[in-house]
C-alpha cells in the first residue's frame, strides 16, 4: 500500500515551508472528505456517497485544522511583510541588484575598448564577477555574502588599473548600495522583531503540526481502507516531497563543497 512519505519541515526555510504547504493545500480536493461527496437519493449536498468512499470524521477534522492553521501562517507572513521598513529593505535590495548589473554591463562594454590595456583590465575585473555568478537571483542573505566577497576581491585588485579603467565609481556604488541594504535590513529586523520571531514562528509550528497530523491521518486510513481512496492525493504530495528533498540535497551538497573549499584555502594560507 502506498503512503505519504516523510519530510522534515524544520529543514526548510520559512518561505519554502510556506510554499510547500500551499501546494499541499491545493491537492486537498483529491481527498474523500465529507464535503467532496454528492447527494444520494434525495440527500442534501455534502451527504457521503460512494464517491467519497474512505472519508471519515478524523480526515475531515485533520483537513479543516490544516487549512485553518495554514491560513494563520499565511496571514502572519503577509503581516510581517507589510511593515514600512520591509518595503524600504525590498527597495534597497532592488537598488543593489541594479548596481551589480550596471557594473557587470560596464565591464562587458569595456571589454571591447579600443585601448588594449583598458580592455584587458575590464576582462580581468569581469572574471571576479564570473567567479561568483549572478547573485541577484539568490536569497538576500546569500546575495550579501557574495557581494561582500566580490567587493573584497575588487579592493584587492591593483588600484591604478581599476582607476584607469574608470571602474572606481561602479565599485563605490555597489558598496554604498550594499551598505544601504544592510542598514535597511537592520531597521526591518528591529521593527519586525517580535512579529518575525514570534507570530510567524508560532503559526508556522502550528501549521507544520497540522500538516503532520493530516499525513498521519491519511496514512492510518490507508492501513484501514487500502490506498485506493487516497492514491491521487498521496501520489501528488509525494511528488512535492521528492522535489523538496532534491532541493535540500542540492543545498547540502553545495554547502559541503563550500566548506571543503574553505578548508583547502585555509590550509594553503598556513
How does this structure look, described?
The protein starts with 13 loop residues before the first helix and ends with a helix. It has 270 residues and is mainly α. 75% of the residues lie in helices and 0% in strands. The protein is elongated, with a radius of gyration of 26 Å.
Short description:
The chain has 270 residues and is mainly α. It has eight helices and no strands.
Sheet with most strands: none
Tell me the overall shape.
elongated
- What are the low-pLDDT stretches, counting only 5+ consecutive residues below 50? 38-51
Helix content: over 70%
Give the termini distance in whole angstroms. Answer: 57 Å
Q: What is the alpha-carbon Rg in Å?
A: 26 Å
H/E element string? Answer: HHHHHHHH
Chain-averaged pLDDT: 87
Number of helical elements = 8
Query: How many strands appear in the DSSP assignment?
Result: 0
What structural class results from the helix and strand content? mainly alpha
- The share of residues in extended strands comes to under 5%
Question: Which structural traits does this protein have?
Answer:
270 residues; mainly alpha; 8 helices; elongated
Q: In terms of topology, how is this protein built?
A:
Layout: H1 14-27, H2 57-80, H3 84-110, H4 116-132, H5 140-156, H6 159-164, H7 168-225, H8 231-269
Helix pairs in contact: 1-2, 1-7, 1-8, 2-7, 3-4, 3-7, 4-5, 5-7
